[in-house]
Write a structure and sequence with these properties.
Radius of gyration of chain A: 16 Å
Distance between the termini of chain A: 53 Å
Shape of chain A: globular
Helix content of chain A: 10-25%
Number of strands of chain A: 9
Oligomer: homodimer
Order of helices and strands of chain A: EEEEHEEEEEH
Chain lengths: 127, 127
C-alpha cells in the first residue's frame, strides 16, 4: 500500500497501515511501549499481535497479547484501568509500536502508576 | 541479593542488581527503551543481553545486543551518536529496561532524532 504523508512540525511523518508492520520477530508479536500523553512518562511495555493492533485501531483503547494467558487482552478490562489511545507511532524497522495513551488509574498491576518503579544499581550514579 | 530502597518523590524505589533481572524470555535478551533525559522523548527500542547491561553499567554509555549482527554493540561507536546514561529503570516483571539517556546527535540510523517517526493509520483520529 502506498504511504501518505503530511507535515507535522518541521518534518514529514509517514502514515502506515497495519499491513506494513513486520510481525516476523518473536513469533508474531511486536513490543509495544505505552507512554502517557502529556507527561511523556513511560507506563509499561507489553506485546501485540495483529489482532491486538486491529482491536486497538477499531476501539481506540489499548489491546495487547498476553504471553502468559495466551489471549487477546484489553488493558483494564477487569480493573477499569483502561488506556485511551491518542496516537500510535511505529519505529524505523516497523517492528515496534508506541501507544500514546490517556491512562485511567495506575498502569501497573502492582498499583504503581508506571511499571518502571525500580532502578538498576549503577556505580557511576549511585556512589 | 537483598534490595535496598530510598525515597524519591513520594514513593519507594527499589534498587536492583543485574543478577535480579529475568533474561529467560527471548533467548537471553531484554527489550530496552531509550528515553531522552529531560524531554521524555522515546528515541528507540533495542535489546540487551547480560553482557550489554554490564557494559552499560561499567562505562556509563548505552550498550545493546545487535540481533542482526549478533554482536555486542555500543550505540554510536561508529557514528559518534552515543547515549550517556543518566539512570536505568527496571519494570515490575524485571524483564524490560528503560535507559534514560543524553543523546548525542540523532538516535535513528536514518538520521531522524527518534526511530518513532511514523504513525499508524487510525480511523478514529485521522478521519
Amino acid at each position: 500500500m502506498p504511504n501518505t504523508t503530511f507535515e507535522k512540525s518541521e518534518k514529514r511523518i509517514e502514515i502506515l497501515s497495519v499491513s506494513d508492520l513486520d510481525f516476523e520477530n518473536f513469533s508474531g508479536l511486536l513490543p509495544v511501549i505505552a507512554q502517557e500523553h502529556g507527561s511523556g512518562r513511560i507506563l509499561m511495555l507489553a506485546y501485540a499481535n495483529l489482532e491486538a493492533v486491529r482491536k486497538t485501531q477499531e476501539t481506540g483503547y489499548a489491546h495487547y497479547w498476553s504471553r502468559s494467558r495466551k489471549t487477546l487482552w484489553k488493558k483494564g478490562a477487569t480493573s477499569g484501568h483502561v488506556q485511551q489511545i491518542t496516537e500510535v507511532l511505529v519505529d524505523c524497522d516497523k517492528d515496534t509500536l508506541l501507544y500514546k495513551v490517556i491512562q485511567t488509574g495506575p498502569a501497573c498491576h502492582t498499583g504503581a502508576k508506571s511499571c518502571f518503579y525500580r532502578k538498576l544499581h549503577f556505580e557511576t550514579i549511585e556512589n
